[in-house]
Amino acid sequence: MVKERTRILIVGGGYVGMYTALRLQRQLKPELKRGDVEITVVSPAPYMTYQPFLPEAAAGSISPRHVVVPLRRVLDQCKVVIGEAKSIDHVKRTATLTTLATEDEGAGAEQITYDELVLAPGSISRTLPVPGLADYGIGFKTLEEAIGLRNHVIEQMDIASSTRDPAIRDAALTFVFVGGGYAGVEALGELEDMARYATRYYHNVRPEDMKWILVEASGRILPEVGEEMGKYTVTELRRRNIDVRLETRLESCADRVAVLSDGARFPTRTVVWTAGVKPNPILAATDLRLNERGRLKCTAQLTVDGTTHAWAAGDAAAVPDVTAEEPGKDTAPNAQHAVRQAKVLGDNIVHSLRGEPLETYGHKCVGSVASLGLHKGVAQVYGRKLKGYPAWFMHRVYHLSRVPTFNRKARVLAEWTLAGLFKREIVSLGSLEHPRAEFELAAGGKPPHDPKGSS
Predict the structure, then answer these.
(1) Does the keyword Lipid metabolism feature in the UniProt annotation (predicted)?
(2) Are 151 and 430 in contact (CB under 8 A)?
(3) Which H helix or E strand runs over 272?
(4) Which residue, among 113, 86, 115, has the nearest Cα to 99 in the 3D structure?
(5) How many domains does the chain contain in total?
(6) Do residues 111 and 224 share a domain?
(7) pLDDT value of residue 447
(8) Residue 244 is part of a domain; what is its CATH number?
(9) Calpha distance 14→36 (Å, rounded)
(10) What is the residue range of 93's domain?
């Protein structure tokens, strides 16, 4: 039994943050009811995003609101604070936060104290100093970016259909994706599939008019599904007239021209950057121990190494892989580990509060699945290799089983069922990004400037 009031602070509302809080809610139900425990979750967004569904959301197969889980609904026993942790002093057990009200209040960041700390801020996009990337690049890590990219692609098709300038048309129909991991390959596969379908509704845009280019710095794509399936994916993408360029880097996208390291130049209005992630900046603003890659150095019990009352998992944590044959290997920073680590982390906090021995985290990956568009995919599960429709079906079944809450499972399944009965939606709602633009113009203001040139 917890003997005194314990304040648990969870930084991050993603996989680890939400699942850990859920676990604590269930395991500490009596203590929460008595007021012996207080759980605070700090997240920059009021929802958890199920990222494997971002490509399907971008393609219009799933509604955006069904890709996210509202934190306040599922964490009804926790205090949810929409904001960001800017620094953490674990010696003093204090965290400095900014919230949506910080700027209006004018009092600066606030400090809160805690007894147990869970650091699960996830990761952010890793960018390189590529000229023009900050001005014209589009990320693919958040739901807003995924939906924005969908609107952008359809809008480029509208531009190409209406322009009389061949150069503008060519640039509008050229789509460059940088990064051959899950995010890049799945986003490219789904959006190319959607755009090819959409051309049937354009009188002057054909599938062969579009150029889809995948740029990968290494010699292979989708390393998670194995070398053989990676090679199959390259072959499959090239069969769809997608230009896959391995061992190639993006050197510049200034002035809306993608310049590659192999000398190729592509005028384009779309550069999608999915070339990896890096640790969240909050980790460097703590007094906790980091490894050489900037991730928190953790034990197999998911405690931060070298200290007490600090826990971490997911992208932010370097957790020893106790199932690996070679010593010193860490678990991969993916969703498969994050969800499972969160459960052990939540249980271990409860064990710690009750003076019980801690559990050791160990999980051997059973495989990986990837979608390449409607009815197309690759998978390697329990040593078996799947491709085409069986792999795509496995991808859907697996992720449907993993998306949080029965509510979301039912809604996603219903949408997939309806999508099989009706035609795809190919409407661009790009104006959602600037909802006040029309009113501002009517009131005598200036319309917003879009550096990406999507309007």
Answers:
(1) no
(2) yes
(3) strand 270-273
(4) 86
(5) 2
(6) no
(7) 62
(8) 3.50.50.100
(9) 26
(10) 6-125+278-353
